[in-house]
Inverse folding.
């Protein structure tokens, strides 16, 4: 199947930051079960990416987030579909990150980013985080 015939799936991902750490989740279902990712999900037709991200995090983690700056949009081909993933810096407004759909989660600092097996699209986000780290103050990481 060539790239033009792949169905595009539009999703959003939250890079939730708490001080010097970011939040990672492990998928608990589907073809990519056990892979690590930034939480998020599909954008519905009537939603902005930011609205979709707030809804998905509320549904999956029972947590209210503030969606901040866009980090990047990752384009990634998976078997059978093309993923277009808009990624945003986020912070917790209210809630305790209850795992409703994921099998595990952890907070990672810069030195721990490679300690989990990221899904391909999320690996690209990790590279972007590494590249942009220099734009933040020392106390960020």
């Amino acid at each position: 199947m060539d790239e033009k015939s792949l169905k595009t799936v539009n999703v959003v991902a939250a890079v939730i930051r708490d001080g010097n750490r970011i939040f990672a989740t492990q998928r608990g279902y589907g073809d990519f079960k056990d892979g690590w990712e930034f939480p998020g999900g599909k954008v519905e037709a009537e939603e902005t990416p930011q609205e979709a991200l707030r809804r998905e995090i509320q549904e999956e983690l029972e947590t209210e987030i503030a969606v901040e700056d866009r980090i990047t949009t990752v384009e990634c081909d998976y078997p059978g579909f093309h993923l277009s993933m808009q990624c945003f810096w986020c912070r917790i407004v209210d809630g305790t990150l209850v795992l409703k759909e994921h099998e595990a989660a952890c907070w990672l600092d810069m030195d721990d980013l490679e300690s989990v097996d990221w899904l391909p699209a999320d690996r690209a986000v990790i590279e972007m985080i590494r590249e942009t780290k220099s734009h933040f103050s020392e106390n960020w990481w």
In short: The beta strands are 7-18, 21-27, 36-37, 40-42, 63-78, 81-95, 102-108. The chain has a mean pLDDT of 89. Residues 49-61 form the longest helix (13 residues).
